[in-house]
Amino acid sequence: MVRPTDIRVPDYFHKVVDCQWACPAHTPVPEYIRLIAAGRYADAYLVNWKSNVFPGVLGRTCDRPCEPACRRGRVEENNGASPEPVAICRLKRVAADNKGDITARLPRAGTPNGRRIACVGAGPASLTVARDLAPLGYQVTVFDGEAKAGGFIRTQIPRFRLPESVIDEETGYILGLGVEFRSGERIDSLKQLLTQGYDAIFVGCGAPRGRDLNLPGRQECAANIHIGIDWLASVSFGHVDTIGRRVIVLGGGNTAMDCCRSARRLGGDEVKVLVRSGFDEMKASPWEKEDAQHEGIPILDYHVPKAFLHENGRLTAMQFERVRAERDAKGRRQLVPSGEPDVIVPCDDVLVAVGQENAFPWIERDSGVAFDEWGMPVVDKATFQSSLPQVFFGGDAAFGPKNIIWAVAHGHDAAVSIDKLLNGEDVHERPPPMVTLMSQKMGIHEWSYDNEVSPDDRYKVPWAPSETTLANIKVEVELGFDAATALKETQRCLN
């Protein structure tokens, strides 16, 4: 039996705009695409900035949950062999690259209300909290052990994907709201921080620990086996500028893709990615896998690492077991040995990118913050409040590793909760999501935008020449759409 639609729930209407609803920060996608089509890049940027905070960063690095939801892909699926959504993410970059000076249009620090907020970590979640609360008059202090703000945006995303100037600009907009940034100041004790008179504390310290592989030979070859996220940070800070000629990258996520492409630029002539799952089950975004393969990096699936091989204390190769996927009697997928001989892959260095874990050694277990059996803080999924009412979590620190746009969404929700808590309101009473619905009808037969839909295929973002990008790790690979191509891509939007 089909139940009647409950139109009292506003989400019924919000979900009509598929791409906007799919975005964790509910960015008004059709609105900013129309503004780009009209050449109003600054307006398009500010529409993004209000909801996703980092348009220039996300226009290059977002995981794009909006694009699988795009109706264009579903329409083309019925009419063609290769359905492609609108290039929503890369159009966001067009707005960022062409906006001009928008500083005069940004909010200012609000009249001080006497409330002090501490943000632990200067990543996207903490900076979003600061961005939302500073204009309301809160005195926000952001603590971070590094010299510059940005968190993993700065330390773990290579410069060939995200130039440092973009990070500096967009973190600068937030710090320019009167936010105090305590760089080089790592918080070592929550209990001590609680004594410093802050009215609320937001923990956005990320998932700072990369998983290791305790396999035979690990200790003997330690000098040439590197944890992926730590190695990327060392590359970012300039502490590492070379690697061996033959490199194995273990893992199937986006960090593994960043590792292999970075290694390719630092002297790795033979870089291979080996992953235990099938190619299609890899966690890396499809375009990240394509980019790695485009640069000549093979991805070998169904290889389970067994041992690091060495001679006289020097890493020489890795041993892998070949597996295949099959379903058991209950339909559960599992990997079983294929029966083929083990595979030996020669190497000089190994980058381990098999996942990340949260680490909270600085939060004392008698601080009042409860932890679950997996060592994660117990956090309300709607309010982001911990068992200690004035302490909130967000980003990777709340529920484990995700991505930038989810961290931004967490920051928005936590900021709402902090504001409600400090004004004596119920933190569980949530405002409606930031979803905008407005009619574009101007008359019986007239609309406020051109509604002729282009039949064009999705346009490709141009790349800089590979002989240039592979020779310098700081040269950005993607060049972005020019204005003419961006206009053509906007016309593919069905809204």
How many structural domains are formed by the residues? 3
Major beta sheet summary: 5 strands, parallel
Individual helix count: 19
User: How much helicity do the residues have?
Assistant: 25-40%
**What name is given to the CATH topology of the largest domain?**
FAD/NAD(P)-binding domain
Which strands sit side by side, in order, in the main sheet? 3-2-1-4-16
Low-confidence runs: none
Total count of strands: 16
Strand content: 15-25%
| Terminal residue distance | 32 Å
What would the principal axes of the Cα set say about the shape? globular
CATH C-level category of the largest domain? Alpha Beta
* CATH homologous superfamily identity of the largest domain: FAD/NAD(P)-binding domain
CATH architecture of the largest domain, by name, is 3-Layer(bba) Sandwich
Mean pLDDT: 92
Structural class: alpha/beta
Using only C-alpha atoms, the radius of gyration works out to 24 Å
Characterization of the model:
Strand 8, helix 15 (286-294) and strand 9 (299-300) form a beta-alpha-beta unit. Helix content is 31%, strand content 16%. The chain has 3 domains: 11-104 and 439-490, Fumarate Reductase Iron-sulfur Protein, Chain B, domain 2; 107-208 and 358-422, 3-Layer(bba) Sandwich (FAD/NAD(P)-binding domain); 210-356, FAD/NAD(P)-binding domain, CATH 3.50.50.60. The chain is globular, with a radius of gyration of 24 Å. Strands 3-2-1-4-16 form a 5-stranded parallel sheet, covered by helices on one side. Strands 6-14-7-8-9 form a 5-stranded parallel sheet. It is built from 19 helices and 16 strands. The chain has 495 residues and is of the alpha/beta class.
